[in-house]
Give the backbone structure.
Amino acid sequence: MTERIVQTIRTVPLIRDEIAARRAAGATVGFVPTMGALHAGHTALVERAAREHDVVVVSIFVNPAQFNRAEDLEQYPRDEAADVKAAGAAGATICFTPSVTEIYPADFASSVQVRGPLTETLEGQDRGVGHFDGMATVVTILLNIVGADVAYFGAKDAQQALVVQRFVRDLRIPTEIVTSATVRDQDGLALSSRNARLTADGREQALAISAALQAAANAISNGSADSPEAASAAGIDRLRVAGITADYFMIADPLTLEPASQLSGTLLIACAATVDGVRLIDNLTVSANREAATANC
Ligand code: AMP
């Protein structure tokens, strides 16, 4: 990947002018919204955007509105200089690093809310639907500021990507939303900015999360589980062995996020658990159609 010269822009008028100038010269625009503390999961999104677009905007903004615990917001890792360097190395052309007041002026009074099962289950049930209101509001603002052709989101936050797709469709925001695969460490741990807060022991324990998702997926694909409950039990058991109680462990429809009533079609297995005082989430999709999968081989 050729390293491009990265421009850091902090205000809305400046980024709008810059993007308008690039567009006038015929450029297409890809956009990767992030909260910083960039790792290989983020840079994979930036690299993909750089393969597909002339201009790649990476926003770095820790959004206070989507944290339900003040200490989680305070402890969120921040290192702008390192993030700008990592974004540039991955092919970003512009880093948008607004202040909190640039995004939320003192008289800010609006909110984007997606209602229904998509936001009421999993993270919405566990962290409260306000988490998604905060995320949907800031992503709407950022999409409106950047006006990208395509915005890239990670499958690691599968529910977030579905919520974004829903409000972008409902509100007719003219940006295509693309979801890219979860990037993991070699031992299976899904990369997350929060992993930096794990102790060595905590990291070891956290490996049980991806292992539990895999155990449930195996139980589905090898037929040893005959119901979503049995498949969940296989995962929860794997977590219990590691001394972890999940905030949730659920087998769901990958599009509606409603709990699966039977093992058929493509299923999403999603888990959240607090390890070492750090709340982690992860998910896998699995095909439950063993006959179809065999027939397709
Ligand atoms: P965040 O900075 O955590 O808000 O994440 C910014 C974007 O990066 C979101 O679309 C995330 O889903 C995505 N992302 C975070 N971790 C990963 C990962 N391990 N693999 C792929 N995408 C990720």
Notes: The chain has two domains: 7-180, 193-285. The radius of gyration is 20 Å.
